[in-house]
UniProtKB/TrEMBL annotation:
<feature type="domain" description="Acyl-CoA oxidase C-terminal">
    <location>
        <begin position="532"/>
        <end position="598"/>
    </location>
</feature>
<keyword id="KW-0560">Oxidoreductase</keyword>
<dbReference type="GO" id="GO:0003997">
    <property type="term" value="F:acyl-CoA oxidase activity"/>
</dbReference>
<dbReference type="InterPro" id="IPR036250">
    <property type="entry name" value="AcylCo_DH-like_C"/>
</dbReference>
<dbReference type="GO" id="GO:0071949">
    <property type="term" value="F:FAD binding"/>
</dbReference>
<keyword id="KW-0276">Fatty acid metabolism</keyword>
<dbReference type="InterPro" id="IPR009100">
    <property type="entry name" value="AcylCoA_DH/oxidase_NM_dom_sf"/>
</dbReference>
<protein>
    <recommendedName>
        <fullName>Acyl-coenzyme A oxidase</fullName>
    </recommendedName>
</protein>
<dbReference type="InterPro" id="IPR012258">
    <property type="entry name" value="Acyl-CoA_oxidase"/>
</dbReference>
<dbReference type="GO" id="GO:0033540">
    <property type="term" value="P:fatty acid beta-oxidation using acyl-CoA oxidase"/>
</dbReference>
<keyword id="KW-0443">Lipid metabolism</keyword>
<dbReference type="InterPro" id="IPR055060">
    <property type="entry name" value="ACOX_C_alpha1"/>
</dbReference>
<comment type="similarity">
    <text>Belongs to the acyl-CoA oxidase family.</text>
</comment>
<feature type="binding site">
    <location>
        <position position="222"/>
    </location>
    <ligand>
        <name>FAD</name>
    </ligand>
</feature>
<feature type="binding site">
    <location>
        <position position="183"/>
    </location>
    <ligand>
        <name>FAD</name>
    </ligand>
</feature>
<dbReference type="Pfam" id="PF02770">
    <property type="entry name" value="Acyl-CoA_dh_M"/>
</dbReference>
<dbReference type="Pfam" id="PF01756">
    <property type="entry name" value="ACOX"/>
</dbReference>
């Protein structure tokens, strides 16, 4: 193309409309150099450059990323050095699936990074690996989680030594790609309502796995459609009895079921595998559906940590009831929820970084006869982005605390700590993923039309993250679990019970805050006082305590006429507000604690702390 020719040039009538369009697009991609320097094309200095805040980036990065910084950098450097493993824009679903498997194999076998070894022994390191992997390709991060945290984690956490000995190496080196088959077409959040059955046959010493109806088909199972060779399948354990009922339902248990031939990858007899097809996002993950028709597996394939069956069909367990066994099983699987909360913060960090950097460089309008100004200098843009920037720090420290408590739980196996982590992970997973989902759209809008370009990642980030609000527990259901736990703690307080670690402030709050006037309206309003972190935390906790007291009173009132379920439903929005308020209090407390730990009387975190309050 002639560099002196422009799209307005009409001296060539042979140029068709299509040619002119192509020419125009080429000029967008490769602009013509200006014939003479133009001040409007030069990068203008940010209006606030004179007041630039100097931050010790190395010190801050070391503090935030801690001892796992090196392995994260190793992962990023490995994938940056391998263009063949980078995910192109617009990749097809089938190509993306195969690419994700190649990426995972390269990570384990070429980069020599084996996440499975850290799932139980060093969860903080495992989650740091998943955060770095998620920044490469979110589908890869989810596929890694399915393999090591869900399939592998179920073997480690629900099985016994014989299962670890048999499967650990194959899971670790990817010889045994696997699935986590819990969700069914008709049952997701209500795991106790699962309909798949595992009936013990004492004659052959086997379990017979059956899908009794279409609603019991295992659905949305990651790794199932293409790559999985095994599946941990959750099913009702049915034992034969000698009474009039003939059988006894022992509740939901987990079973290891081979689904494909290890060598040929052909589907095994009695198993049907279907592809769930193209999704809104995460199309590098091969989600599938599984149906079982009288599939027989050895008795040893029962993951028997919390319940076992002898050869003669006798059931034994250290836990006395179905509900206690079910709670213990789910407690061991909470790592997936912890990982999602942690990973969601990574999405927020990426999107806010892109939006803030763009806003610093993008210049629009300004005072008359003066250069245009950075759009980040506009108050409206600051109000969009600064709360999200602050929240990314707050969520980082809150989820770090969650990982710390989860690591302690894995070492101590304390019953109260398990319950504490269960409730804390439910609140943070629900709150953080909901906030991030909204923020991804806001960041895209803050970047105007350029934010709509696929290469800028907002579209893929938003689509890939959207399901985070649903899997590992629907957010509304999880927030109800938080509210229920708070009410239990409230009841224990007045009956002399022991409050768990995370909720300890409720004892003080119910003794102190509720006997005092509202701290917002009853105390002085000087700037120093309003900026005081202790006052801010007191205000958040006062709100939670008032909500807790008021919803407890409403539940008591309505339960007399509506029953327990009806009263809960009547107060549901109030309960969700309580859970959200409590979760915000925990996040703020951990943020303040981390700031004070890092440096006292410093301006580094003052802006984020103040903006965190403007949720």
């Amino acid at each position: 193309m002639n560099p002196n020719q422009t799209v307005e040039d009409e001296s060539h009538p042979s140029i068709t409309a299509a040619s002119r369009r192509i020419q125009c697009l080429s000029l967008h991609l490769t602009p013509l150099p200006p014939s003479q320097p133009s001040p409007q094309l030069n990068m203008l200095t940010c209006a606030k450059a004179a007041n630039k805040l100097e931050v010790d980036k190395v010190s801050l990065s070391t503090y935030m990323r801690g001892k796992n910084r090196d392995i994260q950098e190793k992962i990023i450097e490995f994938f940056e050095s391998r263009p063949d493993l980078q995910t192109p824009v617009g990749v097809s679903m089938n190509e993306h699936r195969e690419l994700c498997m190649r990426q995972l194999v390269a990570l384990v076998r070429e980069a020599k990074i084996k996440p499975f070894r850290y799932v139980v022994d060093d969860p903080a390191k495992y989650f740091a690996i998943t955060e770095a992997i998620g920044s490469i390709d979110v589908s890869l991060g989810i596929k890694l989680g399915v393999q090591f945290s869900l399939w592998g984690g179920s073997v480690l956490n629900l099985g016994t030594e014989k299962h670890r000995d048999k499967y650990f190496d194959g899971i670790d080196n990817l010889d045994y790609p696997g699935c986590f088959a819990m969700t069914e077409l008709h049952h997701g959040s209500n795991v106790q309502g699962l309909q798949t059955t595992a009936t013990f046959d004492p004659v052959t010493d086997e379990f017979i796995i059956d899908t009794p109806n279409d609603g019991a088909i295992k659905w949305w199972i990651g790794n199932a459609s293409v790559h999985g060779k095994f599946a941990t399948v959750f099913a009702k354990l049915i034992l034969p009895t000698h009474d009039s009922k003939k059988v006894s339902d022992m509740g939901v248990h987990a079973f290891i079921i081979p689904i494909r031939d290890l060598n040929t990858l052909q589907t095994l007899p009695g198993i049907e595998i279907h592809d769930c097809g193209h999704k809104v996002g995460l199309n590098g993950v091969d989600n599938g559906a599984l149906r079982f028709r009288s599939v027989r597996i050895p008795r040893d394939n029962l993951l028997n940590r919390f319940g076992d069956v002898s050869q003669d069909g006798k059931y034994t367990s250290s836990l006395p009831t179905i509900n206690k066994r079910f709670a213990a099983m789910l407690g061991e699987l909470v790592g997936g929820r912890v990982g999602l909360a942690y990973a969601s913060v990574g999405f927020l960090k990426i999107s806010v970084t892109i939006a803030v950097r763009y806003s610093l460089l993008r210049q629009q309008f300004g005072p008359p006869e003066q250069p245009e100004v950075s759009i980040l200098d506009y108050q409206s843009q600051q109000h969009k982005l600064m709360p999200m920037l602050a929240s990314s720090y707050a969520f980082h420290f809150a989820t770090q605390y969650l990982v710390q408590k989860y690591s302690e739980m894995k070492k101590m196996h304390d019953e109260q700590l398990v319950a504490d982590v269960h409730a804390l992970s439910a609140g943070l997973k629900a709150y953080v993923t909901s906030y991030t989902a909204k923020s991804l759209s806001t960041c895209r809008e803050a970047c105007g039309g350029h934010g709509y370009a696929a290469v800028n990642r907002f579209g893929s980030l938003r689509n890939d993250h959207d399901i985070f609000q649903t899997f590992e527990g629907d957010n509304t259901v999880l927030m109800q679990q938080v509210a229920a736990d708070l009410l239990k703690q409230y009841k224990d307080k007045f009956q002399g019970g022991t409050l768990s670690v995370t909720w300890n402030y409720l004892r003080e709050s119910m003794n102190t805050y509720l006997s005092q006037p509202n701290p917002i309206i009853a105390r002085w309003e000087s700037a120093d006082h309003l900026r005081d972190p202790k006052f801010q935390l007191d205000a958040f906790r006062y709100r939670t305590s008032r909500l807790l007291q008021s919803v407890a009173a409403r539940l008591r009132k309505h339960s007399k006429t509506l029953g327990t379920f009806g009263a809960w439903n009547r107060c549901l929005n109030h309960l969700l507000l309580l859970a959200e308020s409590h979760t915000e209090s925990v996040i703020l407390a951990k943020f303040i604690e981390a700031v004070h730990k890092y440096i006292l009387n410093s301006n580094i975190f003052r802006l984020p702390c103040a903006y965190f309050l403007s949720f």
